Structures are given as structure tokens and as C-alpha cells.
Amino acid sequence: PKCIEKNKAQNRKYKCPCGFEEHRDIVGAMNIRYATVVGGSSQPA
Fold first, then answer.
1. Residue 27 CB partners (closer than 8 Å, separation 6+)
2. Where are the alpha helices (DSSP H) in the chain?
3. What is the DSSP letter of 10?
4. Rounded-to-integer distance, Cα 16 and Cα 19, Å
5. Is 38 helix (H, G, I), strand (E, B) or coil?
6. Based on CB atoms within 10 Å of each CB, which residue in 10, 11, 29, 40 is the most buried?
């Protein structure tokens, strides 16, 4: 989520106090993409 809140997913669903909700696998993919963009490198899938 944009608020960068760290939270454990419960029952395969991530719920953030800011109101963001998504499947935990999608959130994980978003975090990996963010890390590669911010880290200045990207790797092919």
C-alpha cells in the first residue's frame, strides 16, 4: 500500500489500517516490483 504500513496477512488477505485490502500474493508482487524499481535495477521475470 502507499502508506507503507507493514502488516501480516490474515487468511490470504492483506488488510491495512489505511483501508487498503488485497490478496497477499498481489501485495508481495507489488513489494518485489517496488524493490526493483527503487533499487535501481530490474530483473526479467
1. 1, 9, 14
2. 24-38
3. B
4. 6
5. helix
6. 29
3-state secondary structure (DSSP) of residue 37: helix
Q: What share of the chain is helix, strand, coil (3-state, %, to 5)?
A: 35, 15, 50
**Residue 23 · residue 13 · CB < 8 Å:** yes
Cell representation of residue 10: 490474515
> What burial letters (b/e) apply to 10-38, b meaning 16+ CB within 10 Å?
eeeebbbeeeeebeeeebeeeeeeeeeee
Q: Percent of the chain scored above 70 by pLDDT? A: 60
